[in-house]
Amino acid sequence: MASDISEASPSTAELKLQFAPFSSALEAGFWHELTQKKLNDYRLDESPKCIKGYYYNGDPLGLPTRLTLEYSAFDVDGSTPARCCPALGTLYNTNTLDAFKTTDKKALLEKEAKEIWDAIQSGAALKDPSILCRFILLTFADLKKYNFYYWFCFPALCFKEAITLVRPPSVLDQVFSAKQIAALQDAYDGLCIKTGATAVPYFLIKYTDESVQMAVLGDWETFFSDTKKVTVGVYDPCTLSQHPGWPLRNLLMLVANQWGSKLDTVEVLCFRDRTLQGSRSIQQSVIFHVKLPELPNNSACPKSVGWEKNPKGAMGPRMVNLSECMDPKRLAESSVDLNLKLMRWRLVPSLDLDKVINTKCLLLGAGTLGCNVARTLMGWGVRHITFVDNAKISYSNPVRQPLYEFEDCLGGGKSKAMAAVDRLTKIFPGVNAEGYNMSIPMPGHPVNFSQTTLSQAQRDVEQLEKLIAEHDVVFLLMDTRESRWLPTVIAASKRKLVVNAALGFDTFVVMRHGLKKPPNTQSISTEPDSSPSCSSASSSSSTPAGAAPAVPGSSLFSNIPGHKLGCYFCNDVVAPGDSTRDRTLDQQCTVSRPGLAMIAGALAVEMMVSILQHSEGGYAVASSSDDRMNEPPTSLGLVPHQIRGFLSRFDNVLPASLAFDKCTACSPIVLDHYEREGFSFLSKVFNSSHSFLEDLTGLTLLHQETQAAEKLMFV
Amino acid sequence: MASDISEASPSTAELKLQFAPFSSALEAGFWHELTQKKLNDYRLDESPKCIKGYYYNGDPLGLPTRLTLEYSAFDVDGSTPARCCPALGTLYNTNTLDAFKTTDKKALLEKEAKEIWDAIQSGAALKDPSILCRFILLTFADLKKYNFYYWFCFPALCFKEAITLVRPPSVLDQVFSAKQIAALQDAYDGLCIKTGATAVPYFLIKYTDESVQMAVLGDWETFFSDTKKVTVGVYDPCTLSQHPGWPLRNLLMLVANQWGSKLDTVEVLCFRDRTLQGSRSIQQSVIFHVKLPELPNNSACPKSVGWEKNPKGAMGPRMVNLSECMDPKRLAESSVDLNLKLMRWRLVPSLDLDKVINTKCLLLGAGTLGCNVARTLMGWGVRHITFVDNAKISYSNPVRQPLYEFEDCLGGGKSKAMAAVDRLTKIFPGVNAEGYNMSIPMPGHPVNFSQTTLSQAQRDVEQLEKLIAEHDVVFLLMDTRESRWLPTVIAASKRKLVVNAALGFDTFVVMRHGLKKPPNTQSISTEPDSSPSCSSASSSSSTPAGAAPAVPGSSLFSNIPGHKLGCYFCNDVVAPGDSTRDRTLDQQCTVSRPGLAMIAGALAVEMMVSILQHSEGGYAVASSSDDRMNEPPTSLGLVPHQIRGFLSRFDNVLPASLAFDKCTACSPIVLDHYEREGFSFLSKVFNSSHSFLEDLTGLTLLHQETQAAEKLMFV
Ligand SMILES: [Zn+2]
Ligand SMILES: [Zn+2]
């Protein structure tokens, strides 16, 4: 039987039509549901059951022609996913492995083939052509070991001779004008609406240069006035350009049986309907012109084929062990994965999902921003999320901080970091979340009251250093400016990507910090842009060669490579600890417009994902507002330095600014002191007034020079 | 005693300094916590307890000088809200009403006054001036009826004679230059950091034209070189321009006691630090020049005053009954309210919060968009939220739909509408949420299979009509275009504000539908803009007078008044039911970038809130991208017609377009048929192909004319 299944190998004999067989795709959900049915419903009942799968005609080239069964397969009256075509099947679930092995597969196939043939002969298949695309599934569920044995069959009636191609296959847009293609698409959508189906598997087509008409199979006699030229259509799950998928086989048998003697040749449209990056195209549909062999005069059922080969290419059953993923938690995981894969398959084939999913994210702050960032990360499938916060949940939090509920506020309130972890686990048990209820020491906030406070600060610093080292991306989501200083320094030193978000009342900033070159390259790169990871992208940089920028980052510069971008403190000319500046942006978080944190949190994650898709990651040249009209640098779009949002105007701008050589957080002198002296340097910063950092970086001198210059100017 | 409390009435005798007394502000949370303490901790213990309140020096003019106690009052070592000044107090909680009444209030006050006086004399008050601003709270908690009796006292030591003003008070910016003001602000912030406090209650000041220096009270001797001119500062919670608040009283007593003989006059800065709409100002701080009376030579404690008057203006206790709000749920409500009020008090004094909070919102769709819209509405304090959805929660939903958790997916999944209601209640028990698990009939989706399906459709329509009538704003948040048609028609007919949001893969649209004029005005308004509600705003409208727009809405028109704006279907030249158009925007909701729904959901609510703040509501002229540089029409900013967002570019544009007179949803002919024929018209739409609506509105004719015109052009 195996030898009869036509393979999708390109061109063995040019003139024979060959069909790409279905591959069965059984989601873990299907086996979970089968287990439930077996335990609660079927028990020892081995009688055949009706089940439902579906296939899709919009996959990108290269994916196999899949027939998918998921947990919904047992709900035959349930809905089918949008734009997918349902296929009904018969499930034979045996009670023993022996019964599975000894089941007469030939008889099962012939029984099903006979039903199809009878429906063709009686005309029933004309009225309901879905019978032409049925399947058989033979299973045995070993529920002790969670071994599932199965064998799929997609019955196809065979002509005695080969179906010949009158001419080579053509892609639709080689044959149809743009106008005809648009009309064809219109006509198909109309047919779906008329029949109330998500997809029509088989249909009739009539067209002129001006218009395209479509009808269901049953309307053949009234639809085609002459049979010189007859076009039939099939919703085709195959992605190969030279071959149709399996569903066409039984349609051609029906056509031959019903009208074979009247037809000269038959034109076949394999309708493929792809939507990629938001734009729909049916252009890659394929047209075949075939001559059908004559059927014998007797009405005996033709020979049939259809049992699926196993992964080794031999005729035989398959087995899957699901002992690790039979609980609903695993089910949730595979559903979330499937959803993300759909995004890739249908919209952005070049998307590197693994890069996103495997990113370890450290969220400093579990308030309004932290909650929203965590939720968006979950949506992207990120599995490793760690929270740091020292606050407790208060009664006004849950309506704005979407990981907390009223109950979390009782009894003085749970720790935010811990409650956030609990919630993530409740949302998606597969997440790997951790919480740290700890403070982040801040400049100008002395820690030297006693030996106890000093040791505590040292432990906090060490913990934070360890956490930053263990993660890939650090999100700064606190509600004070000062608390961002220490993680900015540590992450800059460890070359970790930092994504920073801060809120005003109706404005926000979301930014990535500049990512310093690796320490080894930095020491030797006295020439500008000598780092190989940046040279290609920053070739057009307008930064003066070798000159460190002498003024606070300016957005006049374009094409700034990632390693030259500023941090959150680069634009400030005073050290953190003095809360005069940016006070409105940081300290009024609780009185922001409620939508603001959702927008900023979502943008922070989306910006991170876009950066991860860039081949240079955090070293990528910053996109600016001006780049909005240019070809985007990643499959997801721009990779800006900053997004500054203005809710009152519903506007965002994308400034980019250079690192400031006197920055109190990321300048070489600060990093150098931190790397050489460690906590003894940090504790000086914590315990001193802001002038300490300003003296160190030369900001004090700059102030004095500026004042002197001002005096000079106004003499 | 009462007669001794100086009142804040403006100018009785111009030369006497009078102080605005504190008003006690006890949040429900305070009484809740007191109840817990009494029940679990104090029991019959009547000994005095230390508690903590706080006051704020940034309230807008008109608010009383409040000393606030909330549930945190019992956690004396806990944190104080940002920029507020803590005040310690002594709680005397009696076991009986009789004990409350017979407590010797004079003795309590004198005891406290004596402690203050002793601290002044010993110099302890110099080291820790917080003793100068203490309070007494006498309470009795009747926990059977939840009656709370209380009397507040803010002890102040009195001079024998009046304190005289040397000259009239001045507002800071009448006396200080901008440079001095900036330096003053800087110096104060520096002092806060140095002392590690959220606010410094009392301080010393020295200034020149060029600089301002500050020090704590204890540094007096080293700080002031001569005492000819001495300036002291007080963190002043009063908002009146002619009077200082209460905290200054004991400071002046300290100054007189410590240095009285050396001082000629004292300059007092009442430091007031207001942040309004994101910009901080200390300019309204007030400067007084006072001459202090001499103190008697003996060290006897001066007379003291301080018991608060009751609401009738008499000396006596107050009582509050909290039987309705003693459970934690009420506590959550008052916390959420307080948070919103802070937004108004500190940032947007003209914000009409009640208008927002009392808006009844109907959410059609409880998926990604519905969940995010509901969360943002909760953040704004909206209490009445109703969901309509017919879907069940599947395993892939919780990571993207922030009202659901893994558990909601088990056993086939809960109804989204119902689960959303449960979740809102868990987040905020005070919400008034309802869910309807029902379908919305759609054009081109026949309902006439049987009498049962037809009756069901009729019931669904009636239910939807009822729901729309009962709500103020209708959110369209479904994932198909067709399902938006019926609510668009009903809401247009009922003149309800519609906010519509739809997602593509990385693009979205958020829009308000045009709000038709009320039916009675419409019949008589054949002249353009005769409606009084629109005439003022739309006077510069460039729409041709009286001419209905003949082409689908164009964004070339500016200043379109709300009643002329288009709906979701106005830009379409085919009827809903044909899902060719906008397919990518509606049908791929599940494969949107995860952050997109959060952004669009948040913007939909923020746009609604902005519209509600406009005096003309949904009739307001639409703001466009060009208006971003103009004076915004509301305190919250623009009121656009549409926000179209592009996540790949992090960009939003604000197109505005006119209603289309052949629109298949909001045109007069459709509304007229709906209003006259009701369900019999609707069922025709549901059961027919899209040509029915196109024929009705004249779209078919338009198509034919366009085709004829095209033919003519290409002859
Ligand atoms: Zn920096
Ligand atoms: Zn319309």
TrEMBL record, chains A, B:
<keyword id="KW-0813">Transport</keyword>
<dbReference type="GO" id="GO:0009896">
    <property type="term" value="P:positive regulation of catabolic process"/>
</dbReference>
<dbReference type="GO" id="GO:0019779">
    <property type="term" value="F:Atg8 activating enzyme activity"/>
</dbReference>
<dbReference type="GO" id="GO:0060255">
    <property type="term" value="P:regulation of macromolecule metabolic process"/>
</dbReference>
<feature type="compositionally biased region" description="Low complexity">
    <location>
        <begin position="523"/>
        <end position="550"/>
    </location>
</feature>
<dbReference type="InterPro" id="IPR035985">
    <property type="entry name" value="Ubiquitin-activating_enz"/>
</dbReference>
<dbReference type="GO" id="GO:0034727">
    <property type="term" value="P:piecemeal microautophagy of the nucleus"/>
</dbReference>
<dbReference type="InterPro" id="IPR045886">
    <property type="entry name" value="ThiF/MoeB/HesA"/>
</dbReference>
<keyword id="KW-0175">Coiled coil</keyword>
<protein>
    <recommendedName>
        <fullName>Ubiquitin-like modifier-activating enzyme ATG7</fullName>
    </recommendedName>
</protein>
<keyword id="KW-0653">Protein transport</keyword>
<dbReference type="InterPro" id="IPR000594">
    <property type="entry name" value="ThiF_NAD_FAD-bd"/>
</dbReference>
<dbReference type="Pfam" id="PF16420">
    <property type="entry name" value="ATG7_N"/>
</dbReference>
<feature type="domain" description="Ubiquitin-like modifier-activating enzyme Atg7 N-terminal">
    <location>
        <begin position="17"/>
        <end position="326"/>
    </location>
</feature>
<feature type="domain" description="THIF-type NAD/FAD binding fold">
    <location>
        <begin position="343"/>
        <end position="617"/>
    </location>
</feature>
<feature type="coiled-coil region">
    <location>
        <begin position="447"/>
        <end position="474"/>
    </location>
</feature>
<dbReference type="GO" id="GO:0000407">
    <property type="term" value="C:phagophore assembly site"/>
</dbReference>
<dbReference type="InterPro" id="IPR042523">
    <property type="entry name" value="Atg7_N_2"/>
</dbReference>
<feature type="region of interest" description="Disordered">
    <location>
        <begin position="516"/>
        <end position="550"/>
    </location>
</feature>
<dbReference type="GO" id="GO:0000045">
    <property type="term" value="P:autophagosome assembly"/>
</dbReference>
<dbReference type="GO" id="GO:0032446">
    <property type="term" value="P:protein modification by small protein conjugation"/>
</dbReference>
<dbReference type="GO" id="GO:0019778">
    <property type="term" value="F:Atg12 activating enzyme activity"/>
</dbReference>
<dbReference type="GO" id="GO:0080090">
    <property type="term" value="P:regulation of primary metabolic process"/>
</dbReference>
<dbReference type="InterPro" id="IPR042522">
    <property type="entry name" value="Atg7_N_1"/>
</dbReference>
<keyword id="KW-0072">Autophagy</keyword>
<dbReference type="GO" id="GO:0006995">
    <property type="term" value="P:cellular response to nitrogen starvation"/>
</dbReference>
<keyword id="KW-0963">Cytoplasm</keyword>
<dbReference type="Pfam" id="PF00899">
    <property type="entry name" value="ThiF"/>
</dbReference>
<dbReference type="GO" id="GO:0015031">
    <property type="term" value="P:protein transport"/>
</dbReference>
<dbReference type="GO" id="GO:0042981">
    <property type="term" value="P:regulation of apoptotic process"/>
</dbReference>
<dbReference type="GO" id="GO:0048511">
    <property type="term" value="P:rhythmic process"/>
</dbReference>
<keyword id="KW-0090">Biological rhythms</keyword>
<comment type="similarity">
    <text>Belongs to the ATG7 family.</text>
</comment>
<dbReference type="GO" id="GO:0000422">
    <property type="term" value="P:autophagy of mitochondrion"/>
</dbReference>
<dbReference type="InterPro" id="IPR032197">
    <property type="entry name" value="Atg7_N"/>
</dbReference>
<keyword id="KW-0833">Ubl conjugation pathway</keyword>
